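Continuing the series of single-chain predictions for the mutant panel. This is the parent chain; the variants come on the following pages.
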Amino acid sequence: MKQRNGGPKLTAKEIQLIERFRKQPEIWARVQNILALADASEGPLKSADQVEELLIQELRQLGHSTMTQWATLAEVRAGDELRSGDATVRSRKKKTLSWWCVFGLVTVDDRVYRNQNSRFIRPLAELVGVTSRGRSRRLERVLTDFGCEHSFARAAESVLEHYGFEIGVSAVRDATLAHAQRARVQLEAQYAEPFRILPAIGQAHVIAEADGTLICTVQAGPKKDKRPRAWQEMRLVAAQAQDSTVTVYGATFGTVEEAGRRWGHVTRQAGWGMNSRIHIVADGAEWIPLRGQETFGDQGHFLCDFYHVSEYLGAAAPVCRPTQPDQWRRTQQKRLKNGGAPKVVAALAEHLEAEATPDEEAPVRQGHRYLTNRLDSLDYQGALALGLPIGSGMIESGHRHVLQARLKKAGTAWLREHADQIAHLRVLRANKQWNAFWN
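Parent structure:
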């Protein structure tokens, strides 16, 4: 069937849609603008970038108009439901209810009611799950996303750039720290569980690394006052199954015992089983091999970071062979990789400085002592034969992108509590738990 003008007859759904648009003129205007952008048959042809920018603006305004109209109708419905449930309720006055969402600030007239007990009631906020001057969950996620990657001021600028409205730096800070605390609670609940309940079959080899990094902290107090700063060590632990690209991290300001517990948890998540060999690679910090032995027992095998050892060899080389220091260093490195650690120690012993020479002026003695004390941790030949790393690049990379990228920005000093919260949030993100955290 056709209409009298010869066009196709409107269906019932199309007529219903038109009627609904008539009741929502602002939304209809936005839809018309979007349809006009989609029509490239008339007028000057815009570039793809121009259309994209205009479309983003229209979608933002459409979203804001839709939220506002929805809130207005929701307020009417909330009042009707309240009156239907209590005949004594009387309308008194209107107040303004506002909250932030990803489309900006939504504002609606919120009628206040009073019942026979003289109690004032504002039903809308509770029914739709908002608070006055609060923020939607989606916006909280956006603020936390930006706030855990950039300074809070830069995060607020990112909201303006990507979402088209201004929001205060304090709002970004509050949202980020609140959810960072939630992340800490969630992760610490996981760490409280025992980690030695292992499957019979796990990954054949799991690489486990640990190290500390210094975070600049400041005491609480008024910002205008001069507050002393202190560098405190935060320990990062990591584990990855051999041939895997997925690394699991943990971080703590706590004791080495606490770091060891978290190390056990991340290693289990990475695939630690009863059959696994735990390949531990780290620098010479004494707490790391001790925690490795305590945490992994006979399954753990410690290897001293090859590049850390090489630094000692590089410092000793000008004394051992002044004319060709680089060649001497490379020779010793080849010996280490071929299982010749005793030969390297002997080569250093030939050039030991006099006992009266201060340690800081005796690089050969330092290198000799370092290697002699770690002869059982220099099996680079065995590690290379198994295709296992001989350097601690995994944890060094983790320091940079998990902790330092946010916590060690130039000029930044943190309250210890806040630094700990942000570290847990970034660990959760690095461990691919971000979506689960919000859902």
